[in-house]
């Protein structure tokens, strides 16, 4: 990686500026280099910062290693059906960074991007100002942690953190922990605390779940054979609405397994419905725990049933099908919990993030602040997005699908440059 120094005399203008140096931005740089297009990658922190600083200690991939397929850098280790741990993920990324050797300017937080009447982009950052013919936004879609306003009314004695800040149980004060949210992060953090011996209270949301292994194989392997991961968002039953879905909870920990919240309840974890409020020293929950658990299990069984259909259709030999039956049901849902009497001393908020593209002055955003695009190509000439969830397929925001998206966007950049010869100072190879 060429980590440029802002004190050096660098050209003010680039054909393309890429905002963000995670796996998406680096993938774009890989293809821009192959197309012989000069460019600069601006990174707010350091390259692949999120993977290094916003993951807990026992974090591991929830998809098998064989799905790690960054451009020119597929997984070549000895455990393709395993799940890389945090240090292994960083090692994999470090090797990718070295291969790409992208022209990155770190600690360059972009504060404003505008476009003039002639179609040239002006970029203002903490490391200087630049101009570009085209902009690729590769900063992801998870920017601002969601913490409800009720958090302001909780006692000062309660330690609060967001999922991106959690590292391990020992960093929390002694006592019980309330985990709010049961998506991928919430379910895995609750498990981590539970396995450490902490008393855990979990506010369960509407996240679905899936099996880790079914009928002799990883569910991901079955879904890959069924071409699920090649389905474009335009063919998904929910269309663009799938981008708002919470990811299914499952884990790759200890070789991979299901996360069954009902089993945790049998082992002493206390489950509640959605957290709604805090008043007069008491936490208040919706009476929807049973419904949320049942809905998650329905999704689990529905995915397995689709695999059953695929096996039957193709006459594949596999172990017999099994339907999941609940291990535990809440008899009387508790909708209130005395904060002091519960012994809760800390809360981990695991309810997601909101996008923040306030620095980008372009008429491409919908009412939720999400950009409108087709496979990352916007209606504004020269403006592209990469690395967003379901940008094109399920793998768009993951190691498995970002290469395909980056290649498509760079091809679009080349096509646009070919149609505007005055901009194509360097032709695409």
Automatic annotation (TrEMBL):
UniProt keyword list: Oxidoreductase
Domain of life where this protein originates: Bacteria
GO-annotated molecular function: flavin adenine dinucleotide binding; monooxygenase activity
SUPFAM superfamilies named in the record: FAD/NAD(P)-binding domain
Protein name per UniProt: FAD dependent oxidoreductase
Organism name: Caballeronia calidae
Source species taxonomy: Bacteria, Pseudomonadati, Pseudomonadota, Betaproteobacteria, Burkholderiales
């Amino acid at each position: 990686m060429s980590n440029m120094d802002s004190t050096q005399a660098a050209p003010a203008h680039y054909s393309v500026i890429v905002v963000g140096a995670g796996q998406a931005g680096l993938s774009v740089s890989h293809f821009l280099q192959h197309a012989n297009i000069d460019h600069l990658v601006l990174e707010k922190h350091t390259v692949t910062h999120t993977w290094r600083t916003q993951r807990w200690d026992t974090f591991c991939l929830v998809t098998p290693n064989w799905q790690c397929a960054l451009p020119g850098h597929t997984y070549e280790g000895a455990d393709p059906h395993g799940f890389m741990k945090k240090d292994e993920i960083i090692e994999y990324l470090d090797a990718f960074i070295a291969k790409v050797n992208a022209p990155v300017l770190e600690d360059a937080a972009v504060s404003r991007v505008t476009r003039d009447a002639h179609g040239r982009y002006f970029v203002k950052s903490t490391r200087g100002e630049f101009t570009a013919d085209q902009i690729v936004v590769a900063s992801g879609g998870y920017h601002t942690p969601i913490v409800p306003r009720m958090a302001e009314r909780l006692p000062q004695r309660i330690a609060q953190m967001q999922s991106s800040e959690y590292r391990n149980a020992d960093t929390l004060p002694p006592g019980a922990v309330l985990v709010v949210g049961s998506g991928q992060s919430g379910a895995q953090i609750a498990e981590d605390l539970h396995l450490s011996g902490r008393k855990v209270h979990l506010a369960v949301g509407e996240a679905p779940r899936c099996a880790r292994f079914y009928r002799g194989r990883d569910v991901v392997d079955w879904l890959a054979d069924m071409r699920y991961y090649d389905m474009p968002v335009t063919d998904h039953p929910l269309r663009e609405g799938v981008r708002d879905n919470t990811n299914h909870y499952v884990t790759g920990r200890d070789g991979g397994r299901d996360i069954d919240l009902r089993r945790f309840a049998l082992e002493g974890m206390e489950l509640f419905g959605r957290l709604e409020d805090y008043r007069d020293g008491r936490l208040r929950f919706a009476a929807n725990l049973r419904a949320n658990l049942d809905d998650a299990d329905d999704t689990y069984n529905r995915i397995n049933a689709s695999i059953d259909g695929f096996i039957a259709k193709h006459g594949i030999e596999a172990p017999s099908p099994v339907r999941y039956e609940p291990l535990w049901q809440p008899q009387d849902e508790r909708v209130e919990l005395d904060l002091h009497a519960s012994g809760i001393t800390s809360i981990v908020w695991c309810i997601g993030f909101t996008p923040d593209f306030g620095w980008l002055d372009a008429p491409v955003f919908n009412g939720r602040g999400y950009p409108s695009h087709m496979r990352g190509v916007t209606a504004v000439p020269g403006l592209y997005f990469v690395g967003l969830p379901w940008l094109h397929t399920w793998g768009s925001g993951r190691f498995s699908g970002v290469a395909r998206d980056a290649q498509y966007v760079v091809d679009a950049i080349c096509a646009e440059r070919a149609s505007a010869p005055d901009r194509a100072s360097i032709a695409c190879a």
